[in-house]
Each structure stands twice: as structure tokens, then as C-alpha cells.
Amino acid sequence: MYQPALLLFLVVLVAVIWDTVWRGIALWKAAHNKQLYWFIAILIFNTIGILPIIYIAFFQRPNSTKPPTTT
Prior knowledge:
The protein is mainly alpha-helical. Helices cover 68% and strands 0% of the residues. It has three helices and no strands. The longest helix has 29 residues, at 4-32. The mean pLDDT is 86.
């Protein structure tokens, strides 16, 4: 059986990896979209990936890197 300390370590490790991945993606998108307030909020608050997921899903600007179309 697992010892409680090892189980706790594994849970914390998974949470850290989960948060780091989502935070990295959200920080990249906020910086790319020049959204300074979102960048600072995501950088400061540790919400185990919840704030970055909310930003990515609802608050990032639409992608404007499409080339203009000519008619």
C-alpha cells in the first residue's frame, strides 16, 4: 500500500504540473495579445489552473493573424 506521505507528494506533483502547463499557455496568450492585466493576474494568483483555463476559454482576444483577403 501507499504511504500517506507518498500519496500526498504525488497529488501535489500532479497539481504543480497541471498548473504549470495551463499557466504557461495562458501567459503566452496574454502576452501575445498584450493583455497586461490578465498577464499579471495569472502570474500572481495560484488557482491550480482554474484562472488560466477561464482566461483561455472566455477572455482572450480573437486571433488576428489571418492575412487580409482581397476581392
